[in-house]
Specification:
Number of strands: 16
Helix content: 25-40%
Strand content: 15-25%
Distance between the termini: 24 Å
Number of domains: 2
Order of helices and strands: HHHEEEHEHHEEEEEHEEEHEEHEHEH
Number of helices: 11
Radius of gyration: 24 Å
Shape: elongated
Structural class: alpha/beta
Strand order of the largest sheet: 1-2-4-3-5-16-6-15
CATH superfamily of the largest domain: Zn peptidases
Length: 386
Protein backbone atom coordinates (compact mmCIF):
# COMPACT_ATOMS: atom_id res chain seq x y z
CA UNK A 1 0.00 0.00 0.00
CA UNK A 2 1.75 3.16 -1.23
CA UNK A 3 0.46 5.87 1.06
CA UNK A 4 2.43 9.09 0.95
CA UNK A 5 5.29 8.73 3.43
CA UNK A 6 4.93 12.20 4.89
CA UNK A 7 1.22 11.69 5.46
CA UNK A 8 2.01 8.42 7.20
CA UNK A 9 4.28 10.32 9.56
CA UNK A 10 1.39 12.32 11.00
CA UNK A 11 -1.12 9.48 11.16
CA UNK A 12 -1.36 9.84 14.94
CA UNK A 13 -2.22 13.51 14.57
CA UNK A 14 -4.99 12.61 12.14
CA UNK A 15 -6.39 10.09 14.59
CA UNK A 16 -6.42 12.75 17.30
CA UNK A 17 -8.20 15.22 15.00
CA UNK A 18 -10.82 12.67 14.02
CA UNK A 19 -11.53 11.62 17.60
CA UNK A 20 -11.86 15.22 18.70
CA UNK A 21 -14.41 15.78 15.94
CA UNK A 22 -16.20 12.58 16.92
CA UNK A 23 -16.57 13.77 20.51
CA UNK A 24 -18.07 17.09 19.42
CA UNK A 25 -20.62 16.42 16.65
CA UNK A 26 -22.85 19.13 15.21
CA UNK A 27 -25.98 18.95 13.08
CA UNK A 28 -27.02 20.38 9.74
CA UNK A 29 -25.83 23.93 9.02
CA UNK A 30 -24.81 24.48 12.65
CA UNK A 31 -21.22 23.22 12.32
CA UNK A 32 -19.56 26.31 13.80
CA UNK A 33 -17.33 24.51 16.34
CA UNK A 34 -16.28 22.01 13.71
CA UNK A 35 -15.48 24.82 11.29
CA UNK A 36 -13.46 26.61 13.97
CA UNK A 37 -11.43 23.45 14.58
CA UNK A 38 -10.85 23.06 10.84
CA UNK A 39 -9.80 26.71 10.49
CA UNK A 40 -7.34 26.42 13.40
CA UNK A 41 -5.68 23.43 11.73
CA UNK A 42 -5.61 25.13 8.33
CA UNK A 43 -3.96 28.23 9.78
CA UNK A 44 -1.34 26.06 11.47
CA UNK A 45 -0.66 24.36 8.14
CA UNK A 46 -0.09 27.71 6.45
CA UNK A 47 -2.73 27.61 3.72
CA UNK A 48 -2.95 30.76 1.62
CA UNK A 49 -6.58 31.79 2.08
CA UNK A 50 -9.46 30.79 4.35
CA UNK A 51 -13.04 31.80 3.57
CA UNK A 52 -15.65 30.93 6.20
CA UNK A 53 -19.35 31.49 6.82
CA UNK A 54 -20.33 29.92 3.49
CA UNK A 55 -23.65 28.07 3.74
CA UNK A 56 -23.71 29.34 7.35
CA UNK A 57 -20.71 27.36 8.63
CA UNK A 58 -18.91 26.06 5.56
CA UNK A 59 -15.24 26.75 4.82
CA UNK A 60 -13.24 27.01 1.61
CA UNK A 61 -9.44 27.17 1.89
CA UNK A 62 -6.99 27.72 -0.95
CA UNK A 63 -3.45 26.41 -1.37
CA UNK A 64 -1.41 27.75 -4.26
CA UNK A 65 1.21 25.67 -5.98
CA UNK A 66 4.26 26.49 -8.07
CA UNK A 67 2.99 28.67 -10.87
CA UNK A 68 -0.16 28.81 -12.90
CA UNK A 69 -2.32 25.76 -13.38
CA UNK A 70 -5.80 24.31 -12.87
CA UNK A 71 -8.03 24.74 -9.85
CA UNK A 72 -9.38 21.53 -8.33
CA UNK A 73 -11.93 21.27 -5.55
CA UNK A 74 -11.72 18.58 -2.87
CA UNK A 75 -14.81 18.29 -0.70
CA UNK A 76 -15.46 16.85 2.77
CA UNK A 77 -18.75 16.99 4.68
CA UNK A 78 -18.73 17.96 8.37
CA UNK A 79 -22.19 17.37 9.89
CA UNK A 80 -23.36 14.55 12.16
CA UNK A 81 -26.70 12.79 12.72
CA UNK A 82 -29.44 12.97 15.41
CA UNK A 83 -28.63 9.49 16.77
CA UNK A 84 -27.74 8.37 20.30
CA UNK A 85 -24.30 6.78 20.10
CA UNK A 86 -23.80 3.15 21.16
CA UNK A 87 -20.17 2.54 20.19
CA UNK A 88 -18.82 2.55 23.75
CA UNK A 89 -15.69 4.31 22.46
CA UNK A 90 -13.67 6.32 24.97
CA UNK A 91 -14.01 9.26 22.58
CA UNK A 92 -17.77 8.82 22.12
CA UNK A 93 -20.00 11.81 21.47
CA UNK A 94 -20.36 14.25 24.34
CA UNK A 95 -23.54 15.67 22.80
CA UNK A 96 -26.68 13.75 23.82
CA UNK A 97 -28.67 12.42 20.87
CA UNK A 98 -26.04 13.41 18.32
CA UNK A 99 -23.20 11.40 16.81
CA UNK A 100 -20.97 11.01 13.77
CA UNK A 101 -22.71 7.94 12.41
CA UNK A 102 -21.79 8.43 8.75
CA UNK A 103 -18.04 9.04 8.85
CA UNK A 104 -18.07 12.77 8.20
CA UNK A 105 -15.55 13.19 11.03
CA UNK A 106 -13.28 10.89 9.02
CA UNK A 107 -13.96 12.67 5.74
CA UNK A 108 -12.99 15.99 7.31
CA UNK A 109 -9.87 14.42 8.79
CA UNK A 110 -8.75 12.96 5.46
CA UNK A 111 -9.07 16.34 3.78
CA UNK A 112 -7.19 18.02 6.63
CA UNK A 113 -4.42 15.45 6.23
CA UNK A 114 -4.15 16.20 2.53
CA UNK A 115 -4.20 19.95 3.28
CA UNK A 116 -1.28 19.66 5.70
CA UNK A 117 0.82 17.74 3.19
CA UNK A 118 -0.04 19.94 0.20
CA UNK A 119 0.63 23.15 2.15
CA UNK A 120 4.04 21.79 3.20
CA UNK A 121 5.21 20.46 -0.16
CA UNK A 122 3.37 22.51 -2.81
CA UNK A 123 4.61 20.07 -5.42
CA UNK A 124 1.95 21.09 -7.90
CA UNK A 125 0.88 23.89 -10.20
CA UNK A 126 -2.30 25.90 -9.88
CA UNK A 127 -4.55 25.85 -6.84
CA UNK A 128 -6.35 23.34 -4.67
CA UNK A 129 -9.65 24.45 -3.13
CA UNK A 130 -10.48 22.60 0.09
CA UNK A 131 -14.25 22.54 0.60
CA UNK A 132 -15.50 21.75 4.12
CA UNK A 133 -19.26 21.51 3.81
CA UNK A 134 -22.08 21.41 6.40
CA UNK A 135 -25.56 19.90 6.16
CA UNK A 136 -25.03 16.94 3.84
CA UNK A 137 -27.52 14.97 5.92
CA UNK A 138 -30.31 17.55 5.91
CA UNK A 139 -30.89 20.56 3.69
CA UNK A 140 -28.12 20.01 1.14
CA UNK A 141 -25.16 22.13 2.17
CA UNK A 142 -23.53 21.40 -1.19
CA UNK A 143 -26.50 22.98 -2.95
CA UNK A 144 -26.24 26.08 -0.78
CA UNK A 145 -22.50 26.40 -1.33
CA UNK A 146 -23.03 26.13 -5.08
CA UNK A 147 -25.84 28.69 -4.95
CA UNK A 148 -23.59 31.02 -2.99
CA UNK A 149 -21.15 30.83 -5.88
CA UNK A 150 -18.10 28.97 -4.60
CA UNK A 151 -17.41 27.24 -7.92
CA UNK A 152 -17.24 30.49 -9.87
CA UNK A 153 -15.82 32.60 -7.05
CA UNK A 154 -12.78 30.37 -6.64
CA UNK A 155 -12.53 29.26 -10.27
CA UNK A 156 -13.01 25.59 -9.42
CA UNK A 157 -12.81 23.48 -12.58
CA UNK A 158 -13.22 19.92 -11.25
CA UNK A 159 -14.47 18.45 -7.95
CA UNK A 160 -13.76 15.21 -6.10
CA UNK A 161 -15.02 13.62 -2.89
CA UNK A 162 -14.60 10.45 -0.83
CA UNK A 163 -17.05 8.59 1.42
CA UNK A 164 -16.21 5.76 3.78
CA UNK A 165 -17.75 2.36 3.00
CA UNK A 166 -18.52 -0.02 5.91
CA UNK A 167 -19.56 -2.77 3.49
CA UNK A 168 -16.16 -3.15 1.84
CA UNK A 169 -12.72 -4.35 2.87
CA UNK A 170 -10.32 -1.87 4.40
CA UNK A 171 -8.55 0.22 1.78
CA UNK A 172 -10.67 -0.72 -1.24
CA UNK A 173 -11.71 2.14 -3.50
CA UNK A 174 -14.86 1.74 -5.56
CA UNK A 175 -16.53 4.02 -8.06
CA UNK A 176 -18.06 4.03 -11.54
CA UNK A 177 -18.78 6.49 -14.32
CA UNK A 178 -22.38 7.65 -14.61
CA UNK A 179 -25.01 7.44 -11.88
CA UNK A 180 -23.63 6.15 -8.60
CA UNK A 181 -26.18 7.44 -6.05
CA UNK A 182 -29.88 8.02 -6.57
CA UNK A 183 -32.03 11.11 -6.65
CA UNK A 184 -34.20 11.39 -3.56
CA UNK A 185 -37.71 12.80 -3.28
CA UNK A 186 -39.96 12.73 -0.22
CA UNK A 187 -43.72 12.79 0.04
CA UNK A 188 -46.31 13.55 2.69
CA UNK A 189 -50.01 12.80 2.24
CA UNK A 190 -52.80 13.90 4.54
CA UNK A 191 -56.19 12.24 4.11
CA UNK A 192 -59.10 13.91 5.87
CA UNK A 193 -62.50 12.31 6.31
CA UNK A 194 -65.13 12.49 9.01
CA UNK A 195 -64.39 10.75 12.27
CA UNK A 196 -66.82 9.00 14.54
CA UNK A 197 -67.68 5.87 16.50
CA UNK A 198 -66.24 2.64 15.17
CA UNK A 199 -69.62 0.97 15.56
CA UNK A 200 -71.27 3.40 13.14
CA UNK A 201 -69.01 3.59 10.05
CA UNK A 202 -71.96 4.56 7.86
CA UNK A 203 -72.10 7.89 9.66
CA UNK A 204 -68.41 8.58 9.04
CA UNK A 205 -66.09 9.09 6.11
CA UNK A 206 -63.29 6.72 7.03
CA UNK A 207 -59.87 7.72 5.62
CA UNK A 208 -58.22 4.43 6.70
CA UNK A 209 -59.51 2.26 3.80
CA UNK A 210 -58.37 4.98 1.43
CA UNK A 211 -54.90 4.98 3.00
CA UNK A 212 -54.60 1.19 2.76
CA UNK A 213 -55.63 1.16 -0.87
CA UNK A 214 -53.48 4.17 -1.67
CA UNK A 215 -50.38 2.58 -0.16
CA UNK A 216 -50.76 -0.41 -2.46
CA UNK A 217 -51.62 1.69 -5.49
CA UNK A 218 -48.46 3.77 -5.17
CA UNK A 219 -46.43 0.57 -5.60
CA UNK A 220 -48.04 0.14 -9.02
CA UNK A 221 -45.86 3.04 -10.19
CA UNK A 222 -42.85 0.74 -9.81
CA UNK A 223 -44.47 -2.38 -11.20
CA UNK A 224 -46.63 -0.93 -13.97
CA UNK A 225 -45.39 2.54 -14.93
CA UNK A 226 -41.60 2.41 -14.67
CA UNK A 227 -39.54 0.66 -17.37
CA UNK A 228 -38.36 -2.62 -15.80
CA UNK A 229 -34.71 -1.83 -16.51
CA UNK A 230 -34.80 1.55 -14.74
CA UNK A 231 -34.18 1.36 -10.98
CA UNK A 232 -36.95 2.88 -8.89
CA UNK A 233 -37.91 2.66 -5.22
CA UNK A 234 -41.17 3.92 -3.71
CA UNK A 235 -41.17 3.33 0.06
CA UNK A 236 -44.10 4.17 2.30
CA UNK A 237 -42.45 4.68 5.69
CA UNK A 238 -45.04 6.63 7.71
CA UNK A 239 -48.66 5.62 8.32
CA UNK A 240 -50.28 7.32 11.29
CA UNK A 241 -53.96 7.20 12.26
CA UNK A 242 -56.21 6.73 15.22
CA UNK A 243 -55.93 6.78 19.00
CA UNK A 244 -58.50 4.20 20.13
CA UNK A 245 -59.89 0.89 18.90
CA UNK A 246 -63.48 2.12 18.81
CA UNK A 247 -62.87 5.47 17.11
CA UNK A 248 -62.74 6.02 13.35
CA UNK A 249 -60.07 8.69 12.90
CA UNK A 250 -60.68 11.86 10.96
CA UNK A 251 -57.13 12.14 9.61
CA UNK A 252 -54.52 9.71 8.28
CA UNK A 253 -50.99 10.87 7.70
CA UNK A 254 -48.75 9.04 5.23
CA UNK A 255 -45.19 9.66 4.14
CA UNK A 256 -42.20 8.12 2.50
CA UNK A 257 -39.38 8.39 0.01
CA UNK A 258 -38.80 7.90 -3.71
CA UNK A 259 -35.41 7.00 -5.22
CA UNK A 260 -34.56 7.07 -8.92
CA UNK A 261 -31.81 7.84 -11.42
CA UNK A 262 -33.49 8.83 -14.69
CA UNK A 263 -34.80 12.45 -14.79
CA UNK A 264 -37.73 11.52 -17.05
CA UNK A 265 -38.71 8.70 -14.71
CA UNK A 266 -38.50 11.12 -11.80
CA UNK A 267 -41.01 13.38 -13.58
CA UNK A 268 -43.30 10.44 -14.31
CA UNK A 269 -43.32 9.35 -10.66
CA UNK A 270 -44.30 12.80 -9.43
CA UNK A 271 -47.09 13.02 -12.00
CA UNK A 272 -48.43 9.58 -11.09
CA UNK A 273 -48.38 10.46 -7.39
CA UNK A 274 -50.70 13.38 -8.01
CA UNK A 275 -52.99 11.32 -10.25
CA UNK A 276 -53.20 8.36 -7.85
CA UNK A 277 -53.73 10.45 -4.73
CA UNK A 278 -56.39 12.59 -6.41
CA UNK A 279 -58.16 9.55 -7.82
CA UNK A 280 -58.25 7.73 -4.50
CA UNK A 281 -59.49 10.77 -2.65
CA UNK A 282 -62.36 11.08 -5.12
CA UNK A 283 -63.12 7.37 -4.99
CA UNK A 284 -63.26 7.19 -1.21
CA UNK A 285 -64.84 10.61 -0.67
CA UNK A 286 -62.02 12.03 1.43
CA UNK A 287 -60.01 15.22 1.10
CA UNK A 288 -56.35 14.71 0.21
CA UNK A 289 -53.32 16.96 0.43
CA UNK A 290 -50.09 15.83 -1.24
CA UNK A 291 -46.73 17.48 -0.63
CA UNK A 292 -44.18 16.02 -3.07
CA UNK A 293 -40.72 17.39 -2.34
CA UNK A 294 -37.80 17.05 -4.72
CA UNK A 295 -34.54 16.81 -2.87
CA UNK A 296 -31.06 15.76 -3.98
CA UNK A 297 -30.59 14.90 -7.66
CA UNK A 298 -28.80 11.73 -8.72
CA UNK A 299 -25.05 11.72 -8.12
CA UNK A 300 -23.62 11.28 -11.61
CA UNK A 301 -19.88 10.77 -12.05
CA UNK A 302 -18.13 12.12 -15.13
CA UNK A 303 -16.37 9.45 -17.17
CA UNK A 304 -12.95 11.05 -17.73
CA UNK A 305 -12.59 12.29 -14.17
CA UNK A 306 -13.70 8.93 -12.77
CA UNK A 307 -11.16 7.06 -14.89
CA UNK A 308 -8.49 9.48 -13.68
CA UNK A 309 -9.54 9.06 -10.04
CA UNK A 310 -9.42 5.29 -10.45
CA UNK A 311 -5.84 5.48 -11.70
CA UNK A 312 -4.84 7.61 -8.71
CA UNK A 313 -6.51 5.16 -6.34
CA UNK A 314 -4.56 2.32 -7.97
CA UNK A 315 -1.33 4.17 -7.29
CA UNK A 316 -2.24 4.41 -3.61
CA UNK A 317 -3.62 0.92 -2.89
CA UNK A 318 -2.80 -1.13 -6.00
CA UNK A 319 -5.02 -2.09 -8.93
CA UNK A 320 -6.32 -5.20 -7.14
CA UNK A 321 -8.03 -3.01 -4.54
CA UNK A 322 -9.77 -0.62 -6.93
CA UNK A 323 -13.24 -1.32 -8.34
CA UNK A 324 -14.28 0.94 -11.23
CA UNK A 325 -17.65 -0.65 -12.01
CA UNK A 326 -19.41 -0.21 -8.68
CA UNK A 327 -23.14 -0.80 -8.96
CA UNK A 328 -25.30 2.28 -8.36
CA UNK A 329 -27.16 2.35 -5.07
CA UNK A 330 -30.38 3.97 -3.96
CA UNK A 331 -28.88 6.10 -1.22
CA UNK A 332 -28.46 9.81 -1.93
CA UNK A 333 -25.63 12.32 -1.63
CA UNK A 334 -25.67 16.10 -1.97
CA UNK A 335 -22.27 16.16 -3.70
CA UNK A 336 -24.58 15.61 -6.67
CA UNK A 337 -25.14 19.37 -6.81
CA UNK A 338 -21.44 20.03 -7.33
CA UNK A 339 -21.24 17.33 -10.00
CA UNK A 340 -24.18 18.97 -11.80
CA UNK A 341 -22.08 22.11 -12.26
CA UNK A 342 -18.54 20.77 -12.61
CA UNK A 343 -16.96 17.55 -13.88
CA UNK A 344 -15.61 15.31 -11.17
CA UNK A 345 -16.01 12.04 -9.34
CA UNK A 346 -17.32 10.56 -6.09
CA UNK A 347 -15.58 7.49 -4.68
CA UNK A 348 -16.15 5.10 -1.81
CA UNK A 349 -13.28 4.00 0.44
CA UNK A 350 -13.70 0.71 2.25
CA UNK A 351 -13.07 0.79 5.99
CA UNK A 352 -13.74 -2.87 6.74
CA UNK A 353 -17.03 -4.66 7.29
CA UNK A 354 -18.97 -3.30 10.24
CA UNK A 355 -22.13 -1.51 11.34
CA UNK A 356 -23.70 0.47 8.51
CA UNK A 357 -23.75 4.21 8.21
CA UNK A 358 -26.57 5.79 10.26
CA UNK A 359 -26.32 2.96 12.82
CA UNK A 360 -25.71 3.91 16.49
CA UNK A 361 -22.71 1.54 16.61
CA UNK A 362 -21.05 2.92 13.47
CA UNK A 363 -17.53 4.26 13.89
CA UNK A 364 -15.03 5.50 11.32
CA UNK A 365 -11.88 3.38 10.97
CA UNK A 366 -8.90 5.64 11.67
CA UNK A 367 -6.59 3.27 9.79
CA UNK A 368 -7.95 4.47 6.44
CA UNK A 369 -7.39 8.18 7.11
CA UNK A 370 -3.90 8.15 5.62
CA UNK A 371 -5.20 6.27 2.57
CA UNK A 372 -7.85 8.89 1.83
CA UNK A 373 -5.46 11.77 2.48
CA UNK A 374 -2.87 10.16 0.19
CA UNK A 375 -5.48 9.78 -2.54
CA UNK A 376 -6.37 13.47 -2.38
CA UNK A 377 -2.72 14.49 -2.33
CA UNK A 378 -1.68 12.30 -5.26
CA UNK A 379 -4.72 13.41 -7.25
CA UNK A 380 -3.61 17.04 -6.93
CA UNK A 381 0.06 16.33 -7.62
CA UNK A 382 -0.82 14.32 -10.73
CA UNK A 383 -3.48 16.61 -12.19
CA UNK A 384 -1.43 19.71 -11.35
CA UNK A 385 1.99 18.24 -12.13
CA UNK A 386 4.97 20.60 -12.07
Amino acid sequence: MAIVNRIGEFAQDMTAWRRHLHKHPELSLDCHQTAAFVIDRLRAFGVDEIHDGIATSGVVALIGGRGDGPVTGLRADMDALPIEEETGAEYASTVPGTMHACGHDGHTTMLLGAARYLAETRNFKGTVALIFQPAEETVGGARIMVEEGILDRFGIEEVYALHCDPFSEEGRFSTAPGPIMAAVDDFEITLTGKGGHGAFPHECIDPVPCALSLGQALQSIVSRNAPPRDPLVVSLTILEAGTATNVIPEIVRMGGTVRSFDPDLRDLVERRFHEIVTGHATSFGVAAKLDYMRNYPATVNHADQTAFAGRIASEVVGEAKVTTDRKPEMGAEDFAYMLEHRPGSYLMLGQGIGPSCHHPKFNFNDDVSTIGASFFARLIETRHGV
